[in-house]
């Protein structure tokens, strides 16, 4: 559903995924959300980025994973803002 063409459905699906993430599924769901961040519409990236960062902050199982995930998100945000990062 998060891949739906309808913006309102995507937003509700993101809220649902956000509520469903817990300690046992944080890694696969975060990976899926970050993968989708790469291909999502520009107008959806802000909300998606905010939710991903919140999930990482709240449910990170360890510091290394936290840093890895944040770097992936920051890398995508950099591309989104300036077009490319070097």
UniProtKB/TrEMBL annotation:
Signal sequence region: none
Keywords, comma-separated and alphabetical: Membrane, Protein transport, Transport
Keyword Acyltransferase in annotation: no
InterPro entries: Adaptor_Complx_Large_Subunit (IPR050840), ARM-like (IPR011989), ARM-type_fold (IPR016024), Clathrin/coatomer_adapt-like_N (IPR002553)
SUPFAM superfamilies from the UniProt entry: ARM repeat
Cellular compartments annotated: Endomembrane system
Entry GO CC: endomembrane system; membrane coat
Transmembrane segments: none
Membrane listed as a keyword: yes
Major localisation: membrane
GO biological process: intracellular protein transport; vesicle-mediated transport
Annotated ranges, domain Clathrin/coatomer adaptor adaptin-like N-terminal: 3-75
PANTHER family in the cross-refs: ADAPTIN, ALPHA/GAMMA/EPSILON (PTHR22780)
Name this protein carries in UniProt: Clathrin/coatomer adaptor adaptin-like N-terminal domain-containing protein
């Amino acid at each position: 559903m998060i891949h739906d063409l309808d913006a309102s459905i995507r937003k509700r699906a993101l809220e649902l995924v956000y509520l469903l993430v817990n300690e046992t599924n944080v890694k696969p769901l975060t990976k899926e959300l970050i993968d989708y961040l790469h291909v999502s519409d520009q107008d959806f990236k802000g909300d998606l980025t905010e939710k991903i960062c919140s999930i990482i902050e709240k449910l990170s199982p360890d510091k290394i994973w936290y840093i890895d995930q944040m770097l992936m998100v920051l890398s995508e945000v950099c591309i989104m803002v300036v077009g490319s990062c070097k």
